[in-house]
């Protein structure tokens, strides 16, 4: 650490320390995952960095487009075409020297593991689709970590704190028929993501800032002992024209299929070195449960041809799934659990599409009733653990 950094830093939080209940050290040790680095993600990241949150992981799958520049404080015209997460991380390091931030270009469904989420204190969703929110909701439930979420329109914004079902509704508890339809519309019959997402929602830097500030305020409230966060399962909707603020409690669905936290997990080797064939060779393992659906075969029923593939379903584009001869969408075969009869068992879990911090389940043979619950193995260190190693 250079003198140039440490000298002004001594006074950096002088005004913060005047705030009742402020704890600079607690915030410096706070680990937050921000999913989405669009207009809202920019505001959340800026706020978290300024209040002194010390460790941030930001994930976004997209690159910067011209329309992002009028709503995203961290992006510049010369950033066009660069990955959003990478640029956002770079700008925060510039804004707050010494901050530990990593930008990951990837998808919530396939590039964020339960073990990484469990190592965070809070997850903030700055997403723009029902599918991505459902994926993030599932990760937070399995990890048992609070999920804050924000959404924007041109004149209003909404922030929510989702619960685990036992205390407060989760995101899936509040799924409406129109959200189900939007989810269906974003996928083809084979479950592939459509290349073009729906109509873009009109938003401005104004509502992004409004929602972003409130999400950062909720992170503070969750981490500062004398502050009071929103109760799990609460949603706050704010409209500017006319000015209205409504807070409501979402009803918990008793039959919600998403609830349930994973028990303690074992620390396993990195996905680059772990192979299903080795795990299934253990006498007490019958099946290996993957964290997501993986495509293993493509079949064109028009041409009668079939070919093998190994790609998480969420990463398989319609273009890649099209038949090279007749260009029709091919039928996709997927697996979510592996046994001795599965293909590609000698490929590593990284080749199966897993990233560090993802969790696989090991199921015992049926006759062994003593261990019905799968054993859960974290593949490699979570991002935050690795970060701790780096100092
Ligand atoms: Zn639920
Ligand atoms: Zn064909």
Lateral arrangement of strands in the main beta sheet:
3-2-1-4-5-6-7-8
Which molecules other than protein and nucleic acid are bound? zinc ion
Write out the CATH superfamily name of the largest domain: NAD(P)-binding Rossmann-like Domain
Main sheet attributes: strand count, strand direction, barrel closure: 8 strands, mixed
What is the beta-strand fraction? 15-25%
Cα distance spanning the termini:
12 Å
Instruction: List SSEs in N-to-C order.
Output: HHEHEHEHHEHEEHHEEEHEEHEEEH
Sheet/helix structural class: alpha/beta
Overall mean pLDDT stands at 91
Counting DSSP E segments of at least 2 residues, the number of strands comes to: 14
The CATH top-level class label of the largest domain: Alpha Beta
Uncertain residue ranges: 1-5
CATH architectural label of the largest domain: 3-Layer(aba) Sandwich
Number of domains: 2
Can you tell me about this structure?
This protein has 391 residues and is of the alpha/beta class. It has two domains: 247 residues, 3-Layer(aba) Sandwich (Rossmann fold), CATH 3.40.50.720; 124 residues, no CATH class. The strands form two sheets. Strands 3-2-1-4-5-6-7-8 form an eight-stranded mixed sheet, with helices on both faces. Strands 9, 10, 11, 12, 13 and 14 form a six-stranded mixed sheet that branches. Strand 1, helix 3 and strand 2 form a beta-alpha-beta unit. Helix 3 crosses helix 9. The two termini are 12 Å apart. The protein binds zinc ion (ZN) (2 copies).
